[in-house]
Structure formats: C-alpha cells, structure tokens
User: What shape does this take?
Amino acid sequence: MSRVRLDKLLADAGLGARSQVKLLIKKGLVTVNGQPAAGPEQKVDAEKDAVSCRGQLLSNASFYYYMLNKPPGYVSAVTDEKEPTVLSLLKGAPGRGLFPAGRLDKDTEGLLLITNDGELAHRLLSPRRHVDKTYLVLAAGHLTPEDLNLLETGVDIGEEKPTLPARARLLSHPEPDLSLAELTIHEGKFHQVKRMFAAVGKPVLKLTRTSMGGVALDPALPPGAYRPLTGEELLLLKNAAGL
Ligand code: URA
Assistant: This one.
C-alpha cells in the first residue's frame, strides 16, 4: 500500500507545482472518494483512493512517468527473488502497476524510465522505432579513430547483421590505457554497448545511460533518486514513440 500526501500525488500527476496544487485544494476543486479534500497534507492511497480534480478522476486511471537515476547493483525488474530491483527505489511513488520501460544491466547506471503506460513503453522499445539512446562509456584500452569509425559504421556482435550506424565520440583518455567515450545507438540489443566495445577490443568498465528519446538524465538527480517527468520531457518521449 502506498500512502502519500495529496499535494505530492497531484504534483506528480502533472497538475502543477506544489504551490499550485495547494491552491486547487484550497479552492475546493479536489475531492477524495467524493469528499472535498481536507488539505494538502491529507494522506491518500494512490492505488485505492479515487482522487479527482475538477471532477476528473486522477488516481487509478492515471498514467505516471518517472525518471530514475539507476544506481549499479539493481536489476531492471518489478520483482526479483534474489536481487534488489529498480522498483524498490520508487517505494511510495504514486501509480499502480509501475514497471521499468526497458532494461539496463545490473551494473549499468543512469537514465531509466519508470511508468505504467504500457503503450508508450512498448513503442519506445520497439526495434522498428530506433529511439536514440546515448551512453557514457568508460572502456579499457586506447580507443583509436579506427575503433570509433567501426563503432559508427557497424560492428559484428554475433548477430545476423552488424550493428546499425551509430554515433561515437571520444571524450578523453583519463589515463593512457583508459578511454571515455559517448555512444548513441538507435537499437537495443541485449548487452549491445558492451558487445560493441568488446568487438573493437576495448571492454566496457563502466556504463551510464545519459539520454533516451531526446530526454536527458537530470544532473540534479543523485544515483537512486527519481522524479516525475516534466510535461516537456513526456512530450519528447511521446514524439520519439510516434504518439
Ligand atoms: N548496453 C549494454 O551493454 N548494457 C546496458 O545496460 C545497456 C546497453
């Protein structure tokens, strides 16, 4: 059961900043189970209580969208018998049936979308849509211009076809035998980035997703923290998903 403050639930559902939703409550425009809301601090069960604003039902029927900065050590799943899951980091967040839209490896960090909007997730992950995903990659070895060229044009990762054209950029060599690079891919094969770098002989040491579908990881979010997507970010993702 997830009980949250009413003003947080309304703000997370995209009705405005906390100050704005407090005003809606004060004006009597918000009801909980048909009764005028008692105040912004009223605790509601996001899964069971029927919260309405101007007569429109929010909870139960609403979609929720969160940006999580996934820390290493968590699996991209709703439940798992052995490992901590990314969903355990969103305890108490409003929204029934939340799940990670896509998968980052247990040791991968960074941007993960958590939502209960199945259609958006399905479309974002569809191999046909080629939604951009950008990663910051720390790799062992000295990436050469030839390596970058190969990563960009397509490498053999043991699939039927080479990888699709990608964008690869060397950022620095933090040490002579280490390379920091940025890679943008338009597909999402299993362990794709690690397999691409392995194919050029530069194994990945650390992997962080920094953007997806035009939405960048919020630098203000520390690992393990999450926040609702802004309206603008949601629009970018819907665009990328062809919605
Ligand atoms: N590519 C990988 O190899 N791992 C991830 O987690 C994401 C992309």
Notes: The radius of gyration is 21 Å. Residues 104-105, 108, 191-194, 207 surround uracil (CB under 6 Å). The chain has three domains: 4-57, 65-127+214-241, 133-212. The chain has six helices and 15 strands.
